[in-house]
Design goal:
The structure holds two protein chains of two kinds.
Chain A: H1 2-7, H2 12-30, E1 34-35, E2 41-42, H3 45-56, H4 58-73, H5 94-113, H6 118-145, H7 150-158, H8 161-181
Antiparallel strand pairs in A: 1-2
Chain B: H1 2-16, H2 19-34, H3 44-64, H4 67-90, H5 93-104, H6 115-146, H7 155-177
Helix pairs in contact in B: 1-4, 2-4, 3-4, 6-7
The chains are: A mainly alpha, B mainly alpha.
């Protein structure tokens, strides 16, 4: 089944899912910052990375985030705070952006391979992809563009870690709720 | 062609980007930006985030190395961000889309169709607006019921809406275009 769904990748059904999830990631950037009860503001955009990974499977999630970044590169102000254009890919945080498709793919792959109930799978997959893979892309680029050493780059990035961990839990609950509400949705054939 | 200046400038700055050079290029980029006149103000929304990032770079460098190194690094980043903004602001969306389609042509080898890129982008743009409106409707409904903004609780219904719409749009596209 999984093979069949990746073979039909360029189909129009897939294109619709890819484009609409790219749109969802864009909308998440437009939403006002959501304040958590403890007072940490989180931006929802990386939540979109996790959701796309869990709900679309690795290949389509990768393409969805690639499409999103493509639209941003073309100048659409879809990033949190209304940013867009080629400038954002020159900024120190560019690595995190480029990590979005990678993170979505890793999330999708982990979601497919891991055993266990949906909630646990989605939480671990979101952490692996949405935090692990995204930071792995983001921190070296931050270190290089801002000419910091690893230590400094890690410290600067770790400010976002608590918010990102909360997003993993949130993503897991969302995926569970959504899959319950739409049981016929096949993220990756099963 | 304009597009190629950006990676070239990035490489040049990484190699020769001492403090005076970086200051000069940042000034040059700022002058170019000012030459846009009133349109330069459309860059304002991104400016605050950039300022925070630049301040962080300077501070971290000052802490671990020196003020000069921090300033040079921040000015290099500023130059590239402004250049990137200028490129996007002075190029028409259709032209950029054309370049993107040309760049994606090699993906044909993997069975992806570059002409679908435009369709995908179009769908995405159309639905960003639609999903945002949906979010506002959900939020309004929640306000009426609970007296305050719905916040995170609305993400699940929004995601469901996105998924249902994706199925419908997929069916509609298949009916129209066949596949």
């Amino acid at each position: 089944m999984a093979l069949a769904s990746s073979q039909s990748l360029p189909s129009l059904q897939s294109l619709a899912r890819i484009s609409l999830f790219a749109a969802l990631v864009g909308v998440l950037g437009l939403l006002p910052k959501i304040d958590l009860p403890v007072g940490v503001p989180i931006t929802a955009q990386t939540l979109g990375v996790m959701l796309a990974g869990c709900l679309l499977g690795p290949a389509r999630a990768f393409l969805a985030l690639l499409l999103f970044l493509g639209a941003v590169a073309l100048g659409l102000p879809l990033l949190t705070g209304g940013r867009g254009g080629l400038g954002v890919f020159m900024a120190p945080s560019a690595g995190f952006l480029l990590g979005f498709p990678v993170g979505a793919a890793v999330t999708g792959l982990a979601m497919r391979k891991l055993p266990g109930p949906v909630l646990a799978r989605a939480a671990v997959a979101s952490a692996l992809g949405g935090i692990g893979a995204v930071y792995l892309c983001g921190v070296p680029v931050l270190a290089a563009t801002a000419q910091l050493n690893w230590h400094g780059a890690l410290i600067a990035s770790s400010m976002f870690l608590p918010g990102d961990l909360v997003k993993c839990v949130l993503s897991a609950f969302l995926v569970q709720t959504v899959l319950r509400g739409l049981p016929e949705w096949q993220p990756h054939g099963g | 062609m304009k597009l190629a200046t950006l990676p070239l400038a990035a490489t040049a700055l990484a190699v020769w980007g001492s403090l005076p050079v970086a200051a000069g290029t940042a000034l040059g980029a700022a002058l170019l930006l000012a030459s846009l006149g009133r349109r330069a103000w459309t860059a304002a929304p991104g400016a605050r985030g950039l300022a925070v990032a630049l301040a962080l770079i300077v501070a971290l460098h000052a802490w671990q190395d020196s003020w000069g190194a921090g300033l040079a690094a921040a000015l290099r980043v500023l130059t590239l961000v402004v250049l990137g903004y200028l490129l996007t602001a002075t190029t028409r969306f259709e032209d950029l889309l054309g370049i993107a389609e040309a760049l994606c042509a090699p993906f044909r080898l993997f069975g992806l169709r570059p002409d679908r890129l435009a369709l995908g982008l179009g769908l995405m743009l159309r639905f960003v607006e639609s999903f945002f409106a949906q979010w506002q409707r959900l939020d309004e409904a929640h306000r009426v019921r609970a007296g305050r903004s719905g916040g995170l609780k609305l993400l699940a219904p929004l995601a469901l809406h996105v998924m249902r719409t994706a199925e419908r749009v997929g069916d509609a596209l298949t009916t129209r275009l066949g596949d």
